[in-house]
Amino acid sequence: MEIGQFEIEVKNEEIAQIVAEITGEPAKSIRQVCEQYGDEAEEVRYYDVYIVETAYAKKVLKKAGKREFFNYETYLKNGDFPVPAYYGKCHRGDDDWILIEHIDGTDLRDMTDEIAIAAADSLTEIQNAFWEEPDGADDRFLVYQNRIKKRYQYLVEHGEKLLGEAYKLFLERQKTAPRTLANGDFLQFNVVSHDGKVTIIDWGFGGKMPYSLDIARFIAHGTEDRATFPFYMTDGQKKLFLDRVYEQLKQKPDWKQFIADVKLAVLNEYVEFVEAEEDEGNWYYDHAAALAKELLEG
Questions:
Q1: How far from each other are the two terminal CA atoms of the chain, in whole angstroms?
Q2: CA-closest candidate to residue 219, choices 205, 209, 232, 200
């Protein structure tokens, strides 16, 4: 069995009705997005995501959580941002469905210098549009803050003094760091490259959060040997990405603070996988420990 996403053609009258309700167009074909996550035939996930072809274009109909629905309705639908175009919504029972543009292209698991720069351009276009200094906390930030406090408590309970001391620096900085609209899961498979442009997809974890989080998530899991995720990214490409982000940000801290913010957020990425016990070979733990020592030594 080949691991990864695939599509199957389906006949689904409810999906066809939703598409017609939003667009006024009949669906010519409907394909459901699935994922083979293991070697056994039954190890397949069937997602509430459908590739729908109408007379004019392919579109994506997906069951959206409240957060993704909110992000499109509040932030993304009214601007010319590097995200899938938003065509409309439909409420059925307890579920919200959104219809968005289908983006042809490839994800970014095989990084190039050009794509690293294009990804930085797309990310900063959104960050610049919603940049703000911290002033209170909305629901998304409070959920995030509670989550990272629990992550710190995990380190304390497991006697991780070095990681805990460094992680406290991260916690404190989150209170004062500038915030912007963040994707919340800015990994290489949530970004699509096509004709030299990069589109950021899947906004289900997004919201107003510290600016460094998306930057760090994008560089933390890419390696030359694909040691963790199947993402290829060299140290040189990470530098290109960071330099371009800093260059393109219209409002920003000084360079030293910017790099410190990114390093703290990378530490959070590493600790996330240590806490989740998804750290085969202790790659995340070893890298977290080395980074924690660097941060504490200043």
A1: 48
A2: 232
What is the Cα–Cα distance from 183 to 200, expressed in whole angstroms? 8
Q: Which residues lie closer than 8 Å to 277 by C-beta, 6 or more apart?
A: none
CB of 266 within 8 A of CB of 228? no
pLDDT in tens, 24-40: 999 999 999 998 888 88
Backbone angles phi, psi at 287, to 5 degrees: -70, -35
Least Cα distance to 118 among 218, 227, 193 occurs for: 193
Run of H or E residues at 277: none
Query: Residue 127 corresponds to which tokens in the numbers above?
Result: 């960050």
Token look-up 């900085």 returns 173
The backbone region for 52, taken as left when phi is positive above 0, alpha when psi lies in -120 to 50, beta otherwise, is: beta
What tokens does 71 get?
Answer: 């992000």
pLDDT for 250-268, tens place per residue?
999 999 999 999 999 999 9
Contact by Cβ (8 Å): 86, 100: yes
Task: Please give the model's pTM, rounded to 2 decimal places.
Answer: 0.93
The type of residue at 188 is: Q
Q: Which residues contact 167 (CB under 8 A, 6 or more apart)?
A: 151, 152, 155, 267, 268, 271, 292
Please give the DSSP secondary-structure letter assigned to residue 184: S
SS3 state at 270: helix
Residue range 226-240, pLDDT digits in tens: 999 989 999 999 999
Tokens, residue 290: 């080395």
Enclosing H/E stretch for 187:
none
CA atoms of 183 and 190, how far apart (whole Å): 9
